[in-house]
TrEMBL record:
It is found in: Cell membrane. PROSITE patterns: CN_HYDROLASE. Keywords: Acyltransferase, Cell membrane, Membrane, Transferase, Transmembrane, Transmembrane helix. The keyword Transmembrane helix applies. It comes from Amycolatopsis magusensis. It is an enzyme of class 2 (transferase). The chain crosses the membrane at residues 9-27, 82-105, 117-142, 162-182, 194-210, 453-470. The keyword Transferase applies. The lineage of its organism: Bacteria, Bacillati, Actinomycetota, Actinomycetes, Pseudonocardiales. It comes from the Bacteria. InterPro entries: Apolipo_AcylTrfase (IPR004563), C-N_Hydrolase (IPR003010), C-N_Hydrolase_sf (IPR036526), LNT_N (IPR045378). Residues 222-440 form the CN hydrolase domain. This is Apolipoprotein N-acyltransferase.
Length: 478
């Protein structure tokens, strides 16, 4: 009877942990996360792991992760940027990855290795996520690090480790708490684990505080403009295209004096390569009149029948446009990708929407000395905040300000320290307009110079931890 009661209690505890983590993951991740809950979401799973069998641990972790991703199912299935066949693969991989992280944590804990266990879980997660990012045609966004996009003190870690370090921290803390609370662990080991995790977190936050700028003297005044009624690639020669062009030109003319850069959304217009100047003519006049460079997103058809997704930078001095071709076009059919940087005369870089899901070209811009990047985007209604914070993270990684204008009607301007200086959504208005005085960039960071070294370190830690667990499992018993 006692055994039956114990079994029932064990089932209830496992189900409780599953439900708690699933709910916390659902609320703490996805397109509209509650950042504080992100830190708590893995804790019930990690707390449960050393108290139940390996089979139960893996099943509960996988199921909780799968349910937690439910906050993004509708977005994935309705997204134009995520291929439909990739949706189940993405969801499955994320669920398996969390399962493996919790599983290795348990393997370390049953061997009474709380500190390695606390490090192993985030190492598996970060290493696996990094490999996924290398294989994915749409890169990576919407991760644990992205949920912390409005906490610039925490984000400074990315200047050294890339956003992988932020990702690691968000999982390290609950893993360390679970390790300290696990049964059968010596007091000294608990203290070492708790102290080590606390020191890492304090060091990261302390670095974030120290890295905040001493001066906020503005170098640029920037405006980002997005219209609610934007559609993908309106034909520039159609009446609708002409009206859209007039609307944006009027918005540029109405900006306050001193604005030196204006950013419009991605692929606002469709234009034949031979007619590019006809499209840009009115923007050129507006740029010269306002004294501001203008970044226009356009899908350009070449004479050969292919197309490329471009940012056309119209300089205020009347010079020829700077043309940036999107580097990462995903699975867009018949769309040519680019591989070159493009800058306006003042040194402002041009980039395009989904390019921020990848380390490049942001790193290349930083190494070229770029302090501000104009990023036209084409977000969907549900992921505007999430994607704009991906741009913020890329900016912190490389010490650059980011000016974001997206067709969902969200505009955002951040500086090289990850502070959102201005943000606007249409909210029923015809246009969202964000204007900010932006300080000079930080300059190339440690991450800019050394790239994804921390992700590789996490892969090495994960492999070492797995090898240790497997060796101990297969070792003969005395």
């Amino acid at each position: 009877m006692a055994t039956e009661v114990g079994r029932r209690q064990g089932v209830l505890v496992a189900v409780g942990a599953l439900v708690c983590s699933a709910v916390l993951l659902y609320l703490g991740t996805g397109p509209a996360p509650i950042p504080a809950l992100t830190w708590l979401a893995p804790l019930p799973l990690l707390w449960l792991a050393p108290r139940v069998s390996a089979r139960v641990t893996l099943a509960v972790a996988f199921t909780a992760a799968l349910a937690g991703t439910g906050n993004s199912w509708a977005y994935f299935l309705g997204s134009d940027s995520v291929p439909l066949l990739m949706v189940p693969v993405l969801i499955l991989c994320l669920s398996l990855l969390l399962m493996l992280a919790v599983g290795l944590f348990r393997a370390m804990m049953v061997r009474h290795r709380p500190l390695p266990a606390a490090c192993a879980a985030p190492a598996v997660w970060v290493g696996g996520l990094y490999l996924m990012s290398l294989a994915s045609p749409v890169g990576v966004m919407g991760t644990l690090a992205t949920t912390q996009g409005d906490l610039p003190v925490l984000l400074q870690t990315a200047a050294v480790t890339g956003w992988w370090g932020v990702e690691f921290l968000v999982l390290l803390v609950p893993a360390a708490v679970a390790a300290v609370l696990a049964p059968g662990i010596a007091t000294a080991a608990r203290l070492r684990t708790g102290l080590a995790a606390a020191l890492v977190l304090v060091a990261a936050l302390g670095y974030g505080v120290l890295r905040q700028p001493d001066s906020t003297e503005a170098r640029w005044r920037v405006a980002a403009i997005a219209q609610t009624a934007n559609k993908w690639a309106t034909e520039s020669t159609d009446p609708a295209g002409a009206e859209l062009q007039r609307s944006y030109v009027d918005q540029i003319a109405a900006l306050p004096d001193g604005v030196g850069l204006v950013v419009l959304p991605e692929a606002v217009f469709m234009v034949d390569e031979a007619n590019t100047e006809a499209l840009l003519g009115p923007f050129r006049q507006a740029a010269e009149a306002k004294g501001a460079d203008v970044a226009v997103g356009a899908l350009v058809r070449s004479a050969q029948g292919s197309k490329y997704n471009a940012v056309l930078g119209v300089p205020a001095d009347g010079g020829p446009p700077a043309v940036y071709r999107k580097w990462h076009v995903g699975v867009s059919p018949n769309t040519l990708s680019g591989d070159e940087l493009a800058q306006l005369p003042g040194g402002v870089g041009l980039q395009n929407c989904g390019d921020v899901n990848f380390p490049s070209p942001s790193r290349e811009y930083a190494l070229a000395g770029t302090g501000l990047v104009a990023v036209p985007g084409d977000d969907e209604d549900v992921d505007g905040w999430q994607h704009s914070r991906t741009a913020v993270l890329r900016g912190v990684e490389n010490g650059m300000a980011m000016a974001w204008a997206a067709t969902d009607g969200r505009t955002m301007i951040s500086d090289g320290w990850g502070r959102v200086l201005a943000e606007d959504t249409t909210g029923g208005k015809p246009f969202a307009v964000a204007i900010a005085d932006v300080p000079g960039g930080v300059g190339p960071t440690f991450y800019s110079e050394w790239g994804d070294w921390f992700a590789w370190l996490c892969l090495a830690m994960a492999l070492a931890g797995t090898a240790f667990a497997v060796r101990r499992t297969s070792a003969p018993q005395a």
